[in-house]
Design brief:
The protein is an alpha+beta fold. Among the domains are: 42 residues; 33 residues, no CATH class. Helices cover 56% and strands 9% of the residues. The strands form two sheets. It has a five-stranded antiparallel sheet. The chain has a two-stranded antiparallel sheet with strand order 1-2. Helix 8 runs parallel beside helix 13 and helix 9 crosses helix 13. The protein is globular, with a radius of gyration of 26 Å. The N and C termini lie far apart (64 Å).
Length: 357
Amino acid sequence: MVEWAGLENRNTRKRIVGSNPTLSATNRGCIAMLRILLWVLASGVLAPVSVAQGLSPEVEVFVGEMVRKHQFEADALRRLFGRAQSRPAILRAISAPGTAKPWHEFRARTVDAVRIQGGAAFWRRHASTLERASREFGVPEEIIVATIGVETLYGRHTGGYRVLDALTTLAFQYPPRADLFRDQLEEYLLLIRESGLDAMTIKGSYAGAIGIPQFLPGSYRRYAIDYDGDGRRDLMGNTADAIGSVANYYRAHGWLPGQTVVVPAEVAGGDIEALLAAGIKPQLTVGELRRRGVSPVAGVDDAAVAALFEVESESGPRYYLGFGNFYVITRYNRSVNYALAVFELAREIRALVRPRS
């Protein structure tokens, strides 16, 4: 669009200015302003457009819904959305997420020396908080640590996009998941109102996730907790709150203390594609999976319920059985690559902090 606009402006200038060299300075100034306006409109930097020009119909509908459902002030929302900016980089990023890479590539980026050693240091630095969270919520310290490590490298990389820009861009310019991000935009506005934070200053990921554990606004409202007792739920600057909130999230989604998470498996027989197509939610017992050609490469109870999944290694497909706790990790991020990375990073970190005698 920018290239097309630039060409059109040059042609316009030739037709108007070139045909009449005696144009007044005022007219030449008007033409210059027109060229600037055309470039700005074509470049998309005003999407959603400013309040003075009117918001897009989709945004106006959303404003009306927020007024009816939650008694927001319409003019205040219009002013807010008039300041939001469309970010093409967000659309590019969400169309090619890192978790979509082959497993061996994603693993190399997430289960690496920096995160392993950084996780061990994070654990030692926050040992008392992690021990308390593990005891109270039943989630192992290493799973909490690894989740924060995969998400933000222990709080070092929490995102550089304004959350308002990210959610507005995705809610109104990304049709494949527009409903999800409109819901999250609604949650964000409610979070802002409840917390008294400034909607224009909070930054996060390209998907609008916030803080050390990268909670979407809906998860922030439902699962964030004040874990150090200072009267605030602060996931952006308070590590204790982040630790407690991750543990609370996992427990709320069904984490079972002491249960198997995932084991490698070998496969044979004609049922494998059907088992993979059944999804990641555990539905069949290990005994039934054995009868259908799946052999866990570890000792597990035949009565345990699991699901078969595969990842792409450098040498070809690799198979695993994911149990209930593995499914819980996929509630944090729906990618099996993500969940497997959290599990493997957790194992490596624990080996450094609490090596077996």
